[in-house]
Amino acid sequence: MKKLSVLIILFATFLNAQKLTSNEVGIINQGNINTALPIYQTTDAHQHKTLLSLSSEIDPLDSNTAILVKRMKESLLSTDGGVGIAAPQVGINRKIIWVQRFDKEGLPLEYFINPVIVWRSDLQNLGPEGDLSIPDFRDQFYRSKVIQLEYVDLKGQKYSEIVEGFTAVIFQHEIDHLFGILISDKKGKEKNNSYRKVDAYQKSDSTKR
Asked: What is the DSSP string of 11-28?
């Protein structure tokens, strides 16, 4: 009986962790819900703090999650050449990302809820990255060439897939955002230069994520 009570408490805690706050619901539903949400910038102190904060999982079945997913896509489409965006970049510290799939025909934009990288290859790419939230910053970064990803959709259906090349780079960049990791900070911490350089980047240097 005691074990059952503990399990019930843990389950309730899990559900509460996913529940959106009133502030988050307000941001998601501000203005016209069919339009883009503003993209947060590191040049604003409050927005920068949000970008540096850790994101938590979100309930895929919450109606507000669907609105956030849609508005994030509009935010990405409003940019000049952006190929990915994460929820913290629109002010919501929750685990949702959009990625342009350069590994699929037609290069579609796809959303991913509660994405987790469960495996990364030791082989690394070295290539240029920018960021929609960091004005006038670009540099070279190491990223795993291949990753295994797990995530859910808006119906709560779970998926697992292996991604490689430039699309894998975008996934890693966006998932970094969910941990409050910005490329401007990442560069200062990246000290291992022994990786093998692999030319897997297929976009121009103007690409931003």
From this structure: HHHHHHHHSPPHHHHHHH
How far apart CA 101 and CA 167 sit, in angstroms, is 6
**What whole-number distance in Å separates Cα of residue 143 and Cα of residue 183?**
12
- Where in the sequence numbering do the catalytic residues fall? 174
Instruction: Bin 156: left if φ > 0, else alpha if -120 < ψ < 50, else beta.
Output: left
Identify which of 162, 75, 82 has the alpha carbon closest to the alpha carbon of residue 117.
Answer: 162
Q: Determine the length of the chain.
A: 209
Measuring CA to CA, which residue among 78, 92, 70, 186 is closest to residue 134? 186
Cα distance between residue 142 and residue 196, in whole Å? 9
- Best CA proximity match to 208, nearest among 151, 105, 137: 137
pTM score, two decimals?
0.85
Q: How confident is the model at residue 187 (pLDDT cuts 50, 70, 90)?
A: confident
| 117-121, 129-133, 204-208: segment of lowest average pLDDT | 204-208
Indicate the pLDDT class of residue 54, thresholds 50, 70 and 90: very high
Contacts 24+ apart (CB under 8 A), 48-54: 50/88, 50/91, 50/93, 51/88, 51/89, 51/133, 51/177, 51/180, 51/182, 52/180, 52/182, 53/88, 53/93, 53/180, 54/93, 54/178, 54/179, 54/180
Across the chain, what does the average pLDDT equal? Answer: 88
